[in-house]
From TrEMBL:
SMART domains: Elp3. Residues 4-136 form the B12-binding domain. SUPFAM superfamilies: Cobalamin (vitamin B12)-binding domain, Radical SAM enzymes. This is Radical SAM domain protein. The keyword Secreted does not apply. InterPro entries: BchE-like (IPR051198), Cobalamin-bd (IPR006158), Cobalamin-bd_sf (IPR036724), Elp3/MiaA/NifB-like_rSAM (IPR006638), Methyltransferase_Class_B (IPR034466), rSAM (IPR007197), rSAM_horseshoe (IPR023404), rSAM_sf (IPR058240).
Length: 489
C-alpha cells in the first residue's frame, strides 16, 4: 500500500480539497492500493497512518507539504513514523521540498524528495522500490543511498493537466470540504494549470514548477466543475492557478462555457495582461460569475517593479482598479513593501499609491506584507537581498523555529534591511486601512463590528495619522476580524 499524506494546513472551517494529493491519487487510481490521509480532516492523522501501517504492508509514505504550519505537521508525523516503523520509506514532495530539497533531504526521516510535478516521478519511484528500475533513472528525484550519499537526478519536464486523469473525488468525503465562504455556501477549489512563464525575482513558483504555464483545456475545466456542481452541490469555486488568465481568447472561451453553471468564483491574474482585455471580455468574465480577482500589485514604485522583474507598471494597476470598479468585480491587490535597496522610499511611495487605488475603487481589498523574497532552491545556505546576506535554515527543524516560521508567513520577518520605524509604519498603515475597509471575505463578522471599525479609523485615514493605533488593535482583538489571504492562520 501507498499512503498519501496531506498534513494539516488550516483550521477545519477553512479546509478545502487537498488538490496536491488528489493529483497523485489520480496517477495511482486503478493500478495501486493506496489511501489518502488528510490532516485537515482527521483528528489524529499520525494515529491513522500508524493504524494503516499496522493493517497493511505499506511500501511508501508520500508526504506533500507547503512551507509554514503544514511543513511542521509533516515533520512531526514523519519523525514519529520513522521512530516506530523504520522499515517504511518516506518521500516528501510539494512546494516546500521543491524549493528547499537539500533541507528536506537533511532530515533523517526523509528518504526521497520529489521536486516539481510528482505524478510520473511517484510511479517510477514505486518501480524502483520494487526493484524494477534504477533510482538514478528517475528525473525530479533526490535521494540518499544506503551509505547516506546524496543523489540529484535533475529536473523533470512539466506536463499539462490534460495529460493526467481527473482527480478521484470519490476517494474523499467531498461534502466535508465544500465549506461556506464569501463566494458561496459550498465552495470548491480547482487548479487548471501548472507553472508560471514570468520571472518575478521575489517568487519561488517559477523555480519550483517551471517557466512555462501549461493549461487544462476549457472543456475539461468545465466538465470537472460540472461534476462538482451536479454530484456534490458546489455553488462556488476558488481557482488556485498562479495566472488564471493569460490568453484573452482562451479566457473568453472558458467564461462562455462555464457561465451556465451559475458559480461565483475567485482567481488570480496578472495586472498587465488583464489591463489589455477588451470590455467584451471583461463583461464575459463578469457574466461567468467572477466575484473577485487577486492581483500582485507588489509596489507603488515603478523602479521597484522593474527591479523585481515583475513586468507591470503602476499605471496598469490603476487601470485594473478602474476596470474592476466598472464591471463590479472586487480586486485584491497584494503588496510586498520595503525593498532592500531603498525600503523607506518604497514604503512611502507604496502607501501613497494604495490611497490612490482606494480613491479609484474603494472596494479594493488591500493585502500588505513585508518584502520577503522566497529563497531560490539553487542557493545553498543563503542569498543576497540587496546588500544583506541571509543564512537560511538547512533542515525542516530549522524552518520550524519561531523566527523562520514568522519569516515564511511574513508575519514578523525582522528583515535586517527594514528599520523598526519603517516596519511599524507599514504595520500601522495596514491596521488603519484594514479597519477603514474591513474585508468582505469574513462572513462571520457582524455588521455592527464593521461599522465600529470604520468609525474608529475614519479620522486616522483622512488625516494620515498611522502612529500608535492602539484603539484599532484593541477593537480588532475584540472583533477578531480576519485579514484577506490569512484564512490558514
Amino acid at each position: 500500500m501507498i499512503i498519501l499524506y496531506h498534513p494539516r494546513a488550516t483550521r477545519p472551517r477553512n479546509r478545502r480539497l487537498p488538490l496536491a494529493v488528489l493529483a497523485l491519487a489520480a496517477a495511482l487510481e486503478g493500478t495501486e492500493d493506496y489511501e489518502i490521509v488528510d490532516g485537515n480532516l482527521e483528528d489524529d492523522p499520525t494515529g491513522r497512518i500508524l493504524e494503516l501501517i499496522g493493517q497493511h504492508h505499506v511500501e511508501l509514505l508520500g508526504v506533500s507539504c507547503m512551507p509554514g504550519p503544514q511543513m511542521v505537521a509533516a515533520m512531526e508525523t514523519s519523525r514519529e513514523i520513522r521512530r516506530l516503523h523504520p522499515e517504511v520509506k518516506i518521500c516528501w514532495g510539494g512546494y516546500f521540498p521543491s524549493l528547499y530539497p537539500d533541507a528536506a533531504l537533511n532530515a533523517r526521516y526523509v528518504d526521497y524528495v520529489v521536486r516539481g510535478q510528482g505524478e510520473d516521478t511517484l510511479l517510477e519511484l514505486m518501480e524502483a522500490i520494487r526493484g524494477k528500475r534504477e533510482l538514478t533513472s528517475i528525473k525530479g528525484l533526490l535521494y540518499k543511498d544506503m551509505f547516506g550519499l546524496r543523489h540529484d537526478n535533475g529536473e523533470r519536464a512539466m506536463k499539462g493537466p490534460d495529460e493526467f486523469p481527473w482527480s478521484p473525488f470519490h476517494r474523499l468525503p467531498v461534502e466535508k470540504y465544500l465549506r461556506p465562504s464569501f463566494f458561496g455556501k459550498r465552495t470548491a477549489v480547482h487548479h487548471a494549470s501548472i507553472g508560471c512563464p514570468f520571472n518575478c525575482s521575489f517568487c519561488g513558483v517559477h523555480a519550483a514548477y517551471g517557466n512555462k504555464e501549461k493549461f487544462e483545456s476549457p472543456e475539461r475545466t468545465v466538465a470537472i466543475l460540472t461534476h462538482l456542481v451536479d454530484r456534490y452541490g458546489a455553488d462556488s469555486v476558488q481557482f488556485y492557478d498562479m495566472n488564471f488568465f493569460l490568453r484573452e481568447d482562451k479566457a473568453r472561451e472558458l467564461c462562455d462555457r462555464m457561465a451556465h453553471l451559475n458559480l461565483r468564483w475567485w482567481c488570480e491574474a496578472r495586472v498587465d495582461i488583464m489591463s489589455r482585455y477588451s470590455d467584451e471580455t471583461w463583461a464575459a468574465i463578469k457574466r461567468a460569475g467572477c466575484a473577485m480577482i487577486f492581483f500582485g500589485a507588489e509596489s507603488g514604485s515603478d523602479w521597484v517593479l522593474e527591479e523585481m522583474q515583475k513586468g507591470i507598471t503602476t499605471e496598469q494597476t490603476l487601470e485594473i482598479a478602474r476596470r474592476t470598479y466598472e464591471f463590479g468585480i472586487i480586486p485584491e491587490f497584494s503588496f510586498v513593501i520595503g525593498n532592500p535597496n531603498d525600503p523607506d522610499r518604497d514604503t512611502q511611495e507604496s502607501l501613497r499609491f494604495i490611497r490612490k487605488i482606494k480613491r479609484i475603487n474603494p472596494d479594493s481589498e488591500i493585502i500588505i506584507q513585508h518584502y520577503t523574497p522566497t529563497p531560490q532552491p539553487h542557493k545553498a545556505g543563503g542569498e543576497m537581498y540587496g546588500d544583506i546576506e541571509v543564512p537560511f535554515p538547512d533542515t525542516p527543524a530549522g524552518w520550524a523555529t519561531e523566527e523562520w516560521m514568522n519569516f515564511t508567513l511574513r508575519i514578523d520577518t525582522n528583515a535586517p534591511w527594514l528599520k523598526q520605524k519603517t516596519k511599524k509604519l507599514i504595520d500601522n498603515f495596514e491596521t488603519v486601512v484594514g479597519s477603514r475597509w474591513p474585508t468582505v471575505q469574513d462572513i462571520r463578522a457582524p455588521q455592527w463590528s464593521r461599522l465600529l471599525l470604520k468609525a474608529l479609523s475614519a479620522w486616522r485615514y483622512t488625516f494620515h495619522v498611522y502612529k500608535h493605533p492602539f484603539e484599532l488593535h484593541l477593537a480588532q482583538q475584540f472583533i477578531a476580524l480576519r485579514k484577506p489571504k490569512r484564512e490558514s492562520l
